[in-house]
Amino acid sequence: MKTVVVGLSGGVDSSVAAHLIKAQGYNVIGLFMKNWHDDSVTISDECPWLEDSNDAMMVADKLQIPFQTVDLSEEYKTRIVDYMFSEYEKGRTPNPDVLCNREIKFDVFLKIALSLGADYVATGHYCRKTVVNPQSKSPVYQLRSGIDSKKDQSYFLCQLSQEQLAKTLFPVGELTKTQVREIATNLGLVTADKKDSQGLCFIGKVRLPDFLQQKLQPKTGDIIEIPSTFEAYHKHELNSKAISLKTRATKYCYSPENGQVVGTHQGAHFFTKGQRKGLAVGGTKEPLFVIETDVDSNTIYVGQGKNHPGLLRSVLLVKPSEIHWIREDFKLNVGNSLDVLARIRYRQPLENATLHQTAKGLYVAFSTPQTAITEGQFVAWYLDDELVGSGVIS
User: Fold this and answer.
1) Is residue 98 one of the residues assigned to a domain?
2) Comparing C-alpha atoms, which of 1, 11, 2 is closest to residue 123?
3) How far, in Å, are 27, 228, 253 from residue 237 at the CA level?
4) Are 68 and 115 in contact (CB under 8 A)?
5) Is the Cβ–Cβ distance between 275 and 311 less than 8 Å?
C-alpha cells in the first residue's frame, strides 16, 4: 500500500483531501506546517496557527489517521519573509502564495514527506494533474485548472516542476467548493463551515501592510497626480503593433514636474500599482489609483479612474533567469512565438496573448491592454486549461 502525506492546514479543503485520499485506499499521514513563531514581528493578537493546528488534529482524529506537526519557521523566514521585505524595499510586489508553494510546500515540506517514506504528498488545491504517456519511462505531468472556475488555484502553483508534480496529488480538483463543504458536513468535520483563510500564506489573519510596517520604517513622501493627458501616453500608443515589444513593455517614467502634489503618504514601499485604498486623498472627480511608485525618491504617482492610461500596458517582459516552464517540451527558442492564454494575477480571467522569446527575455504580448502590470508578480500562461509556464514580471 502506497503512503500519502497530506498537508493538513486546518481548513476544509485539505480536510476533505485527506478523506478522499484515504477512501482511495492509500495509507494516509496528516502533517501540519508551523511556519511562524518569530516574536520580533507580531503577526496578530490572536494565535491563528495554534487554532488551525488544533482543527487539523481534530480532523485527523475524526478520519483516524496519524498526525504530526512540523516546524518550518526557519525556512519560511529565510525563503519567504526575508525575500518579501527585500522585494518591497526595492519597490517590487512579490506574491507570497506562489512563493510559499514553490519554496515551502512543494520543496521543504515535500522533502520531509518523502523522508518519512511517503510516495506522494496531497494538498487541498483546486487544480488537477493529468499524465501524458503514463506507462513510458518519461511520463509528462500536466497541471490543469480546477473544475470549479471560481476556486481554480492553478495560478498559485505556476512555479512547480515536473519532479514536484510527479509526487503530488490534488484530490479536490475535480470538485466544486460546495461539494467539498457538503462532504465535510456529512463527515462531521470541524472544518466544514470554517471560512477560507484571508491572511498571508501559512501565517494567518494579518493584513500585509500591518506586517510590512513592522520591518519597513514609515517615511513621509508626496502623492503626485498625473493627468490622463500626460504627453508620454500618446507617444507610447499602447495598442500600436508598429511599436517594438521592448518599447511597449517599458514602464512610463514620471517626475514631480509631470503632475501636482495632492497628498502625502508614509512610505512608497507600502503601496503597489493599481492600489486604491489607503491613499486618503479626496476631492477628485474619480477615485485615485496608484500608477507607479518610486522608492528611491519615496514618491507615489496616482491617476484618476481605473481606465487611466498610466495603469494600462499590453506587453510585459520576463527576464531569461525568471522564465519557468512546467512543460519543458514547449520551451521556446530565441525567435520563436507561441499563442497562449495568460493571466497576471489570481482569479483574473484568462486572456489571449502571444509569447515572443528573444535574447533579452520572454515578452508576453496581450491582445488587450492589462491593468496594473506589477513588477515582482507572476504571469502564468496556459494552453487551453493546462498551465504550461510562468515567470516573474520585470
Assistant:
1) yes
2) 11
3) 59, 13, 15
4) no
5) no
Q: How many domains does the chain have?
A: 3
- Cell numbers of 210, please? 500591518
Report, in angstroms and rounded to the nearest whole number, the Rg of the chain calculated over CA atoms: 22
184 and 235 inside one domain: no
Please measure the distance between the N-terminal and C-terminal CA atoms of the chain and give it in whole angstroms. 46
pLDDT for 200: 53
- Secondary structure E strands in 281-376: 288-294, 299-304, 312-318, 323-325, 337-343, 351-358, 361-371
Active site residues: 100, 201
In a domain, 356, yes or no: yes
Helix H, strand E, coil C: the string for 259-288 is CEEEEEECCHHHCCCCCCCCCCCCCCCCCE
Element (H, E) at 122: strand 120-122
CA atoms within 13 A on the CB side of 44: 15
Comparing CA positions, the residue from 197, 217, 196 lying closest to residue 207 is 197
pTM: 0.92
CATH, residue 344? 2.40.30.10
**373 or 234, which is more confident?**
373
Task: Among 295, 311, 327, give the residue marking a domain's end.
Answer: 311
Residues 324, 306 share a domain: no
Phi, psi of 361 (to 5 degrees): 140, -165
pLDDT 10s digits, 86-131 = 898 888 999 989 999 999 999 999 999 999 999 999 999 999 999 9
Residues 44 and 62 in one domain: yes
Residue whose cell numbers read 519573509: 81
Residue 44 clears pLDDT 60, i.e. is over it: no
Claim to verify: residue 190 and residue 107 sit in the same structural domain = yes
Please give the helix or strand (H or E) that residue 231 lies within, else none: helix 231-236
Backbone angles phi, psi at 161, to 5 degrees: -110, 170
d(CA 117, CA 112): 9
- 3-state SS assignment for residue 100: helix
Q: 12-23 vs 48-63: helix axis angle to the nearest 10?
A: 20
- Type of residue numbered 50: L
User: Ramachandran region of residue 25, left (φ > 0), alpha (ψ -120 to 50) or beta?
Assistant: left
| pLDDT attached to residue 189 | 97
User: Is the per-residue pLDDT at 260 higher than 50?
Assistant: yes
Domain end point (choices 168, 200, 232): 200
Question: Whole domain around residue 317: which residue ranges?
Answer: 312-392
Q: Given the DSSP bridges, would you call strands 386-392 and 312-318 parallel, antiparallel or unpaired?
A: unpaired
